[in-house]
Design goal:
Elements: H1 3-19, H2 22-46, H3 55-87, H4 95-98, H5 100-117, H6 127-134, H7 146-156, H8 158-162, H9 167-192, H10 200-210, H11 212-217, H12 223-249, H13 255-262, H14 267-284, H15 288-302, H16 311-330, H17 343-355, H18 362-371, H19 384-387, H20 392-397, H21 399-412, H22 414-424, H23 458-468, H24 480-484, H25 489-502, H26 506-522, H27 530-537, H28 540-547
Helix pairs in contact: 1-3, 2-3, 2-25, 5-9, 5-10, 6-7, 7-9, 9-10, 9-12, 10-28, 12-14, 12-26, 12-27, 14-16, 15-16, 15-26, 17-22, 25-26, 25-28
Length: 557
C-alpha cells in the first residue's frame, strides 16, 4: 500500500468522523467495512491463494486503509448529496435540454466520427457464431438469443437481396446507432424534466454524448448493445412505475401528490411498456429471466397488498416461457447449450484437479477427464478453455453422476473451490483487477461474412483504438479510472442503495435491487468482460438524478 493512499484514507476518515452526522458515519463505515473486506480478499485471490497469505502481517494495513478510506469518502459523499437535495436550487431546464430532437442530433453528431472511423462496423465477440446461423450454415438455436440472431439474419441477407457487398453490416450498424442514440436522448430528456438542482440535469447529456467508450460499443454486432438500451429504458420505466405505486399506497403522502398520481391517465400504458421492456430484456439476454423472476418475488414481498399491480412482471415471465419453450421449438429453434450454465462448477473442478491433483482419487480423475477432456487448459480467470470441450452427451446421459462428483469435490476442497469462484469473477468486484479479455473487442471475427474497413479518419480510428484497448493515459487518471472500471458498478450500486435506504426512497432502492440482481448473474458467467458491465455503466446518471431529487417535492416536474 502506497504511503500517499494511506494518508489520504486517514484524512478522509478523520474529516468524516469530525464533521458528518452520526447516521452517515454509520452508513459510511458499513460501506467501508464491506469494501475493505472485498479489497483484501481480492488482493489475496489475485496473489494466488489464501494459503499463501499472511493475513495479519501482510494485509492488515491494507484492509484498514481500504476500509477507512472508502468509509470516510462514503460518509462525506452521503452528507454532500444530502446537502444538495436540501439546499440546491431548482433551476429551470433550458428548452434545448428538454428537446428530444436537439439532444438526438447532438448525440448523433458526437458519435458520427467514430462511425466513420470504424465504417462499416465491428463484428467481434460472438458475431462469428450468430453469422453461421444467420447465413444458414448451421441451424438456429437459442445459445445466443435467437431474437438478436434473427435480426442480424435479416440484415446479413441484404447483401444478396440488394446485390451490394457489406450493405448488411452497414445498415445494421446504422440502425443500431440510431436506436441507441434515441435511447440516450430519451434518458437525458427524462432526467431533465425532473425537479433537480444545479448542474445535475446536464451530467447525463455530457456522459452519453461525449463518452468515447459508448461511441465504440454502439457500433458492435453483439446482443449486449441492444440489451443495454432496453435495460436502460427498463430502469427508467421501473422508476416511474414504482414511484407511482409507492406514492399511491403511501397513506401519509400529501393529498395533492395522491390526486396527481390517481388522476394520471398513464397507468395502463405504463403497465404495457413495462411488460414489453421486461420481455425484450429477457429475450435479448437469456440470464435476465432469472433476474426478473427474483425481482418479482422481491417486489411481491415488498408490496404484499399489491400483487395485482405486479401483473406486468408475471405477464412478461409467462410470455417469455411461451416464446422460448413453445414458439421457438415450433419453428425449429433449438435450446441453448447446457454448458453455458456450468462455468462455475467446471472452473472449480478444474482448479482442484490442478492444485490438489496428488490427493484426488483415480475414480474422480477418471470422471473429471470423462466430462472435461480440456481440463488441462484451465484458466482461473476464463472458463471457456475448459468449457469448450465439455462432454455434453455424457452429461445428458448421467447428470446425477456429474453433480455428485462436483458435490464431493466441494465438500473435500471448499477453500480451493471458493477461490476458483472468486477468481473467475474477480474483475467484477475488485477494481484493481482488469479483465483478461480486451476492454472492448473491435476486430472482425467472422470468416463467413468478411468485413473490410474503409480506413477513413485513420487518426480518429487510432485514438479510439487506444480507448478500446484501455491504453489511453487519461483513462487511468484518478476518477476517470474508476469511471471506466468494470469492478466499480457494484460499488456505485451499493453506495446509492444505502443512500436511498437512508432517505427512505423505496422506489429508487427497488430499482437498485434489479441492477444488483443482474450483476449477481455475472458472477456465474465464464469471464469478466466490459460488455457485461456496460448496462450498469449506462445507468450512472439515473442514480445521481434519483439521489439528488429533493425529498419534499414532487418526483416529477
Amino acid at each position: 500500500m502506497e504511503v500517499g493512499k494511506v494518508l489520504f484514507s486517514a484524512v478522509c476518515f478523520a474529516i468524516a468522523m469530525k464533521y458528518v452526522q452520526d447516521r452517515y458515519k454509520i452508513a459510511g463505515m458499513a460501506f467501508g467495512l464491506l469494501f475493505g473486506i472485498c479489497q483484501t480478499m481480492g488482493k489475496i485471490v489475485l496473489a494466488y491463494g489464501v494459503k499463501n497469505a499472511s493475513l495479519v502481517s501482510e494485509y492488515g494495513v491494507f484492509f484498514l486503509s481500504a476500509a477507512m478510506g472508502a468509509g470516510g469518502m462514503a460518509a462525506l459523499s452521503f452528507a454532500f448529496v444530502e446537502w444538495i437535495s436540501k439546499n440546491g436550487k431548482i433551476s429551470k431546464t433550458p428548452k434545448r435540454l428538454q428537446s428530444f430532437p436537439v439532444l438526438y442530433a447532438l448525440i448523433l453528431a458526437c458519435y458520427l466520427p467514430c462511425f466513420i472511423a470504424y465504417f462499416p462496423g465491428c463484428m467481434s465477440y460472438d458475431s462469428w457464431y450468430i453469422t453461421l446461423e444467420a447465413l444458414g450454415i448451421i441451424s438456429f438455436d437459442n445459445h445466443h438469443p435467437f431474437l438478436h440472431t434473427l435480426l442480424w439474419s435479416i440484415f446479413a441477407h441484404m447483401d444478396e437481396w440488394l446485390g451490394i457487398k457489406q450493405i448488411g453490416i452497414t445498415l445494421y450498424t446504422m440502425t443500431q446507432l440510431l436506436a441507441m442514440a434515441a435511447v440516450y436522448a430519451y434518458t437525458c430528456v427524462w432526467i431533465s424534466r425532473r425537479n433537480l438542482a444545479g448542474p445535475v440535469k446536464k451530467i447525463a447529456c455530457i456522459y452519453y454524448a461525449f463518452n468515447p467508450v459508448f461511441h465504440i460499443f454502439t457500433l458492435i454486432l453483439t446482443k449486449d448493445v441492444l440489451f443495454s438500451g432496453f435495460f436502460l429504458l427498463l430502469n427508467i420505466t421501473l422508476a416511474d412505475f414504482l414511484e407511482n405505486m409507492f406514492e399511491n399506497s403511501d397513506q401519509n403522502a400529501p393529498r395533492a401528490a395522491l390526486t396527481l398520481r390517481n388522476s394520471s391517465p398513464v397507468g395502463k400504458w405504463m403497465q404495457m411498456r413495462l411488460t414489453a421492456l421486461l420481455l425484450l430484456c429477457c429475450l435479448f439476454r437469456n440470464n435476465m429471466i432469472y433476474v426478473v423472476i427474483a425481482f418479482t418475488v422481491f417486489l411481491c414481498f415488498l408490496t404484499r397488498n399489491s400483487f395485482l399491480r405486479c401483473k406486468s412482471f408475471f405477464l412478461a415471465i409467462l410470455l417469455f416461457y411461451i416464446i422460448t419453450k413453445v414458439v421457438y421449438p415450433g419453428i425449429g429453434v433449438e435450446g441453448g447449450s447446457v454448458k453455458e450454465m456450468l462455468p462455475v462448477p467446471l472452473s472449480q473442478i478444474a482448479a482442484v484437479y490442478h492444485e490438489e491433483g496428488a490427493s484426488i482419487g483415480a475414480e474422480e480423475k477418471r470422471l473429471i477427464n470423462k466430462y472435461m477432456p480440456g481440463v488441462e487448459r484451465y484458466d482461473r480467470f476464463f472458463a471457456d478453455p475448459v468449457k469448450g470441450d465439455f462432454n455434453e452427451s455424457a452429461f445428458e446421459e448421467n447428470r446425477g453422476e456429474f453433480f455428485y462428483m462436483w458435490g464431493n469435490i466441494l465438500g473435500k476442497y471448499p477453500v480451493v473451490c471458493g477461490e476458483a469462484f472468486l477468481a473467475l469473477n474477480l474483475p467484477f468486484w475488485y477494481p484493481e483487477m482488469e479483465s483478461v479479455r480486451e476492454y472492448i473487442e473491435t476486430d472482425n471475427y467472422s470468416q463467413d461474412y468478411p468485413v473490410e474497413r474503409k480506413g477513413w479518419l485513420p487518426q480518429v480510428y487510432n485514438w479510439y483504438e487506444t480507448v478500446s484497448e484501455n491504453e489511453a493515459v487519461w483513462m487511468h487518471l484518478p476518477v476517470m479510472k474508476q469511471l471506466y472500471s468494470i469492478g466499480v458498478p457494484v460499488w456505485v450500486l451499493l453506495f446509492f442503495g444505502i443512500r436511498y435506504g437512508l432517505s427512505k426512497r423505496k422506489a429508487a432502492l427497488s430499482v437498485i435491487v434489479l441492477n444488483i440482481l443482474l450483476w449477481m448473474t455475472y458472477l456465474l458467467g465464464p469471464v469478466s468482460s466490459f460488455r457485461y458491465a456496460e448496462p450498469l455503466l449506462l445507468t450512472y446518471p439515473l442514480w445521481l438524478a434519483l439521489c439528488s431529487q429533493p425529498a419534499q417535492r414532487n418526483v416529477l416536474a
